[in-house]
Amino acid sequence: MSVITWDGHLRIDHLPDRGTVAITLLTAEPTLEVQLRNGLVAGFVAADPEGPPTFVSVALRDNGIPDDVAELLGPRVTAAVADTIAAGGPGGWLELDLGEVDGLAEAWAPYRAAALDPAIPAPRGTLGAWAGELWTRLDLAGWADALRGPELRFRSGESGEREADPPAAQEIWRLPDELAAAVGVAPEVTWTIRPLAGGAVEIGLAVRPAGGTANAVLQAGLDDGSQHWETFEPDPSGVSRARLVASGDPVGVRFRSESRRSA
After folding, report:
1. d(CA 140, CA 137)
2. Which of 9, 91, 177, 198 is the most buried (most CB within 10 A)?
3. What is the pLDDT of residues 55-86, one digit of tens each?
4. Is the bond into 121 cis (omega within 30 degrees of 0)?
5. 147 phi and psi, to 5 degrees?
6. Integer Cα distance of 133 and 196 in angstroms
7. Which are the contacts of 62, defined by CB distance < 8 A and separation ≥ 6?
8. pLDDT at residue number 160
9. Neighbour-count burial for 160-174, b at 16+ CB within 10 Å, e otherwise
10. What pairing do the DSSP bridges indicate for beta strands 20-25 and 31-37?
């Protein structure tokens, strides 16, 4: 495998007619681009499984980039993007040092894995850095296929209440060991999906504690840019669970550590 050299020349292009910003880290290497979600496209060098994104196109919200993308790009790139938008010009250049390039590679690693090895879902998450925390992504973009065909049906329980059918799909997936250790859980995540009324989907997530005291909690959220996170909470059996409800286009699920900080 060839060694890719990055010189840190980064181009920012503001495309107001499209409502997007494009960020390009210059390279002559062939790249693969993938739509990560609605309004977010990224490209990576096909021959560099540990490299930074070479291209990011993001749809603007309230005349700025979404908070989660800002965190992944880092403060200096985000500030340069904001300055470009505020100036109203077509774009500009930024020089990144090697540490900043490495920081982009670390932050975007779960998305890089989705672009270069698009197994859905991969058997184990890829570790990334998220604003000082750890994160990963379970690509559930295939849940529409899993749910295709079955309709929402209910059966009557002995109590007379209406009960949902068993999940349409259930699998076990693994968090990166570093993330699992940081939040004090075993790496295995049991995920289930169930159809709900109106075309929505319930995604159930469960992990088991691994013992010991952790300085962070595990959170999960849909990869839709909303930045809405659910904290895993223990049930009476001691299993920690989180529940997400998705509607519309299939999206992935992100997991992150959230450190417990003293007041």
Report:
1. 9
2. 91
3. 999 999 988 999 999 999 999 999 999 999 99
4. yes
5. -95, -5
6. 33
7. none
8. 40
9. eeeeeeebbbeeebb
10. unpaired
**Residue 14 token pair:** 């503001």
Residue type, 62: D
